[in-house]
Protein: NitT/TauT family transport system ATP-binding protein
Amino acid sequence: MSGPSTTTVSGQTRTADLGDLVTFDGVTKTYSNGFAALAPVDLAIRRGEVLSVVGPSGCGKTTLLRMAAGLSGASTGSVRRNVERTSYVFQDPTLLAWRSVQANTELVARIRGVGRAERRRAASEALELVGLGHVAHSLPRELSGGMKMRVSLARALASDPELMLMDEPFAALDEFTRERMSDELLRLWRERGFGVMFITHSIREAVKIGHRVVVMAKGPGRVADVVDSPSPPTGDPSAPRDEVALDALAREIAATLATA
Ligand SMILES: Nc1ncnc2c1ncn2[C@@H]1O[C@H](COP(=O)(O)OP(=O)(O)OP(=O)(O)O)[C@@H](O)[C@H]1O
Structure:
């Protein structure tokens, strides 16, 4: 574990919490073709928070997520990862068509070398958690789009992640299912307490899901603002939220994006 250092978050200097899962410190990214995708970024993903990231196409959201995953290096600056178990959820659930829901859910744990009995147990528990225990023996083609996304979530949960990196996971779903899936994610978050970096094009979704919202802009890709939610999610669907304050935040973010 590395020692504390000073980072700038949302224009404010603070001492990085040792509990932060990932810390970006003056991080830039220039691709091998010379394209400067990210201007210096200072940001932390805190342990146990849902950090949503919203911005226009091409502003560097996926670039940032790939660096958080350790899949791509910074050109300058440093990315510090203080996390052992990371799971990924993408827009495409990427299920193996010839494998059962149960086998698909076990897949990541299997690749990571988790023993058979343990991965079975973890996958079954994760499937129960997303409400799909009853279709464990079905094939992916027998499921709806929302159910496939739930399998993708269960597969991510089965390896007990500290950090979930989610790149527009619900973008391909219809509006109704999308709403339900964001409630579902928050319920799972409440149950398991993992940190989340959640990329979306939707301001509404970013505001609903995030404890903090990172607003990105392009030309070059950068963090234009980091905003604390005025009414953060608790994961309890029966707990009321301050919808007026959340609407005001959505308008503020839209204004930032329009002028950034
Ligand atoms: N391997 C690469 N080589 C060169 N340029 C790249 C590469 N990957 C991404 N880019 C460019 O970097 C910029 C940021 O890309 P990135 O995928 O991070 O944006 P994004 O905000 O996630 O976009 P979207 O919302 O459309 O998915 C884009 O202009 C993209 O074309």
